[in-house]
Input
Amino acid sequence: MDKAYSFIANQSAIRLDKLIAEKCPGLSRTYAKKLITNGYVTLNNQIAKASLKLNAGDRVDIIIPPTTPNHLSPEAIPLDIIYEDDDLLVIDKPAGLTTHPAPGHPSHTLVNAVLARLPSLPDSGDASRPGIVHRLDKDTSGLMLVAKNSLSLTNLQNQFKARLVVKAYLVLVKGHLSPESGFIDAPIGRDSGNRKRMAVIDNGREARTEYRVVKYVGNCSLLEVRPETGRTHQIRVHLGAIGYPVVGDKTYGVKSPHLSRQFIHASRLGFKLPPTDEYKEFASKLPLDLEQALKDIG
Output
């Protein structure tokens, strides 16, 4: 269960991260910065920055999520590995499989499955996600990268940060999207009304999503979507914000009698292989449940 703290600053010119560390027992300043970066802290009901200096009377609200387990056990979970070399794996993740342990999902994740195949994975800076370069939502299927060693992990992380990785998703939205191609450029941050949701907000982090219509299916549009940035729930939030919610998405989109999960599939992934810098691109077909949903809707 999340813990929540609220307090009023009683002094001026103190940094927000420093004050949080002082006010919250057992919290380091480093962890305070992480909470701020991830949108768990608001200052006067606005998303905050760690370096902000407070004024006396400022209201600070903090949500502290439960800690994730730091003991990971290998589990014999089948994996669809479509490429492997000495440095990495490309995995076609099924819907329903969580990427890494988190509150509510302490085991039976992709990380547990990979550990059954590779007993040693590089430290990613988070004990719950060794080797994980990027993640997919539990109910999103498709292509994922896992690094086998520290050098490849750093290389791949740097490619993501530099926006050199090609990521394309097949997404079904309600309505006939027009224009048939374009960009959504809208900042994303924590929803101040519901801290477990993301939203388009004025002071959020930069977020850009490119899309094109592949075809219209019934009263829906099948899109190829390429997020330039990697914000949490970016595709779902952006498409919902412009009035074309993702079909099957219970949080930001619209429910569908034809789907038990959101219609998002990571269909293409392109990057340079460490350490040779040879560009490779991989593709994944729509899984059967999404194919069947298209037939039913169409």
Observations:
- The first strand starts at residue 3 and ends at 8.
- Helices lie at 16-23, 29-37, 110-117, 150-161, 234-241, 288-297.
- The mean pLDDT is 89.
- The radius of gyration is 20 Å.
